[in-house]
Design brief:
The chain is of the alpha/beta class and about 325 residues long. It folds into two domains: about 1-170, 3-Layer(aba) Sandwich (Rossmann fold), CATH 3.40.50; about 195-315, TPP-binding domain (Rossmann fold, 3-Layer(aba) Sandwich). The chain contains eight helices and 17 strands. Strands 7-11-6-1-4-5-12 form a seven-stranded parallel beta sheet, with helices on both faces. Strands 14-13-15-16-17 form a five-stranded parallel beta sheet. Helix 3 packs across helix 4 (about 95-105) and helix 5 (about 210-225) runs parallel beside helix 8.
Amino acid sequence: MILIVAEHANGKLSKSAYELASAARGLKREGGVTALVLGSGVASVAASAALIADQVLVGDSAELAQYDAEVWSAAVAQIAAEGEAEVVLIAGSRSGREYSPRVAVKLDAPLLEDVMSLKDEGGVLHAEHYTFLTRVTERVEAKAPVVVVTVKAGAFAPAVPGTTAAEQFDVDLELPKRRLVVTGSTKEKTGRIALIEADIVVSGGRGVGTPEGFVQLVEGLADQLGAAVGATRAVVDAGWRPYSEQVGQTGKTVQPKAYIAVGISGAVQHLSGMNKSKCIVAINKDGDAPIFKIADYGIVGDVKEIVPAMIQELRK
């Protein structure tokens, strides 16, 4: 059995769950794919998970209303052990990276982290991930009764939901007592589509000149295209944009249908977060910028002249 832990938010299955299902199907192991849904009031999420898995295990409890690394790792390890899972797939999200090592320790299992490819050869899992600030692609393998894997966001194409729902089962979990209590949280207010969910992303770098230039050029173009807004680490570090918009090795990984890079030179750390986009359009005054090596379309020129012209044409 392959166990995938299905993340969700606001009553909807996250895109990462569909990507995990795709990765799991690619392994073609016996026993099928089992999705584990944890939370409180997750009936609708479980129904969606039933369309991408062979069976769904549901841990629906008030104790699971808030995420907690110790609680989640205990629940996942328990289900993996009871179901004799051979592979446990967890999203490479912030929470997934936090609790997956705990799961591996509890199962006495190897951990393959942030993988961008995964295949099974004779019972041995082979994977690839970036290392040395994404300058090196490292190949790793693991052979054990159970292997825990975190999957890099956007590394796999999302699975297409089926038309027949898999059977769902409620599970009884032995959860540890919480030692951490969340007393409050705040959410960034934005009317834009989420960065990792968007079909079109417009990203800006230091080449846009100023924070005001970012708003005028990047946001302006994104508004005309109905796109999400992304940024490079340099822009985020400068305080121009929030961390939630950062694309790259230390930010988000995106795989939209179209990625428009405005004033981005193309540092390897940024490229690792967007180089699997279906179509990449680069706009930069430096014709030798690294971004042009991976771009499908390149425009060499001043972004302060080119982008306003694009916005004007789109408005027509």
